[in-house]
DNA sequence: AATGAATGAGGGTTCATTCAT
DNA sequence: TATGAATGAACCCTCATTCAT
């Protein structure tokens, strides 16, 4: 292959990561080979090792990248100065958008049983990823507190449990919508969006302040 | 589903599958080698291929087996003649129990992006698994209809979307409780059970019939 | 390739080791690839790993094997009930024979700077190799003591230093005869055997009891 | 040999070679990568190829350099106008000093089975190395002839065989002292120097003129 | 039925070397 | 001259799978 034009190294990292991302999605991390990644990215396999120490680092990079994007989405969702329900919907949409962009990492976030606790020597990327997760939680916490203050959310919400259970439930919902897409379309008469809207609204009801709570 | 007659060989299938199950749990499907499975099961590696066509078939067998167990659990949960909330709680507990018994397959159920749609030549086991899923849905549908009839659940519930979104949300919740176990214990002051009870109850509120709906 | 007839596994180990031995000789350990070894031995590369855990184990096996052969040679050399000089000559010839059979390991014995001290987790083969070395020293020690008792060797010989310095000097001599073969033949008018005889005899003079020592 | 004029570039060759030398010593030629050499020398990897055709040439350069140093040592050892034994001791010490300075090349000199005969297209450096070896032999030859003339060495010494066998034996001795250092210290009660002195003296006895030879 | 033996295909990684600038 | 960038070619090793018995 012809030698490449000189470009900032980060471009190559991006190219490689992007190819990897697609393959990871299609076949899973373990089954996507460095050979394939190289081919898809248009580099020689050895070149991959110029830009990433090893396969693991590619994964770490992608997870971090996706987490940063998620953070961006959430941030934007919360900036909107609509009422609580509107902002809630925005958060849900952010999550959904994130899942569309990074289906693989979305899923990974739910299933990474081992990643958190199996090893103790975390890559810098992993630590950073964790830190961003914390920042997201912080933002959501604020959102809930605002919602309660505004009288839109139930007063008896326990904030941290709520955050985590919502994170789990929303993720599970979105993932189901994705994985059972065909089934849902066929069995019900709903598009994925309609199905998800139904789910999101259902969930909102669980935290929304009922009239009697406002008394 | 009718259990297979005790054929010669079915014992061996069980032994092998059981060993595989343990290993899959510990290391993931990809990382558990046929060598290890054979060793753990106490057979020669070649013998595995007498009882299973290949590794994939072992996975399929295990998924089916776990699905059958889940069906059993759900069945028992619904048999109880308590009121709607009690039966709901029982379903949640069944799901949880299933996750405890088969953490690996539970997780798989949520994340099987590829499995459903990537190939068209389904193994018999996969088809059977699907069929059992349908049966479970059927049961849950009945439960919801009963709940509505009894005035315990909202009248405006759309049954099929509700089933699927609940399945997704509950799974996501349980998985989160599992994966963020350490984090939850540390950050909140809740045990996993308490966290899950909180989540389950929150979700129930979303479908429970509010007073005004009963009029 | 056609499947092989069932043979005791040790045959295969031998075949592999033997091929490896030749290649190590020709190109050095590092440069001889498992691929080449497999090809030369007439096995698939993967088969090598059935019989040896890894490349290192092949080396260990060969070193041990060669050491055992050396021990055998030395033993036979000393059994001869000739006088001291005859037995000395026999030892030298043993060493030479060993070098002819295992040129690579002979050389390795002199140059294994790293092997002894760089790691602490010795393979069983390595430990056994060491043990045999000890046994050889023991035998040679006895030989020298006999020689002194018989009045053939100097009384002031310090046994252990003598053993080690002789081992070093003889090895160095033999190696030189091998490596400078062409040069020696051309520059002097001596065959390798004559050259070595000259060297062996020279060295013997250094320990032989001079008349004045016998008084 | 006349030193090269200080050309531009020779400084860089030195820097690179020097870094390589250290690494070769620590890890062996094969295990020291061009990357490491470049880093240690403070150049870019590509720059190495400006000053050396390839890795092999670096080795050749270093061997030659070390040979030149050895020649210098030997020269100085023989210049001393002591008696024969003193000059002999000096030669031994030179050799030892050389081994201390260039352990790696010292060892290489003994073990270069392949280097001499495997290829026919010698690098200029290799040819030069060979030429210096010849010059050293010449010097040692003169020394022996002087010793015989002085009545210090046996009259029946065959000069060329003696030179080569001594070279081999001394090298073997020194190498053994190095490689079995720990073992020698522990098993005997000798420091390396004492051990070597014992060996050197033993060897001297083999060529020293015994009284009866002087008659 | 059960297995010992063998292997093809591939996996991640390293490294000496080259080329455009 | 000096180098950043890129890569072909290997290398060691693993593993699901097959076959003769």
Task: Write a compact overview of the structure shown.
The structure is a homotetramer of 215-residue chains. Chain A has 215 residues and is an all-alpha fold.
Low-confidence stretches of chain A: 1-6, 113-118
Q: Any idea of the CATH topology of the largest domain in chain A?
A: Tetracycline Repressor, domain 2
* N-to-C CA distance of chain A: 73 Å
Task: Write down the overall geometry of chain A.
Answer: globular
**Tally of domains of chain A:** 2
Secondary structure topology:
Four copies of one chain form a homotetramer.
Chain A: H1 9-27, H2 34-41, H3 45-51, H4 55-79, H5 84-101, H6 103-111, H7 113-117, H8 124-149, H9 159-179, H10 181-187, H11 192-207, H12 211-214
Helix pairs in contact in A: 1-2, 1-4, 2-3, 4-5, 4-8, 5-6, 5-9, 9-11
The structure holds a DNA duplex (21 and 21 nucleotides).
Task: Describe the structure in your own words.
The structure is a homotetramer of 215-residue chains. Chain A is mainly alpha-helical and 215 residues long. Chain A has 2 domains: 1-52, Arc Repressor Mutant, subunit A (Orthogonal Bundle), CATH 1.10.10; 56-214, Tetracycline Repressor, domain 2 (Orthogonal Bundle), CATH 1.10.357. Chain A contains 12 helices and no strands. The radius of gyration of chain A is 20 Å and the shape is globular. At the A-B interface, helix 6, helix 7, helix 9, helix 10 and helix 11 of A face helix 6, helix 7, helix 9, helix 10 and helix 11 of B. Chain A binds a DNA duplex (21 and 21 nucleotides) through residues 1, 3-4, 6, 9, 12, 33-35, 43-47, 49-50, 54-55.
């Amino acid at each position: 292959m012809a030698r490449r034009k000189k470009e900032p190294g980060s471009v190559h990292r991006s190219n490689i990561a992007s190819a990897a991302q697609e393959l990871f999605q299609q076949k899973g991390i373990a089954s996507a080979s460095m050979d394939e990644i190289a081919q898809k990215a248009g580099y020689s396999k050895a070149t991959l090792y110029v830009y990433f120490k090893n396969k693991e680092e590619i994964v770490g990079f992608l997870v971090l990248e996706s987490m940063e994007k998620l953070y961006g989405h959430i941030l934007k969702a919360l900036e909107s100065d609509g009422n609580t329900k509107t902002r809630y919907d925005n958060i849900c949409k952010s999550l959904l958008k994130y899942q569309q962009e990074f289906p693989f990492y979305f899923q990974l976030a739910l299933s990474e049983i081992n990643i958190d606790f199996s090893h103790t020597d975390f890559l810098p990327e992993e630590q950073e990823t964790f830190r961003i997760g914390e920042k997201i939680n912080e933002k959501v916490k604020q959102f809930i507190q605002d919602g309660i203050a505004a009288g839109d959310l139930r007063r008896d919400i326990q904030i941290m449990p709520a955050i985590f259970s919502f994170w789990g439930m929303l993720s599970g919902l979105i993932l189901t919508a994705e994985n059972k897409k065909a089934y849902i379309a066929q069995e019900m008469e709903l598009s994925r969006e309609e199905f998800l809207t139904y789910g999101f609204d259902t969930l909102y009801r669980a935290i929304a302040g009922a009239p009697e709570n406002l008394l």
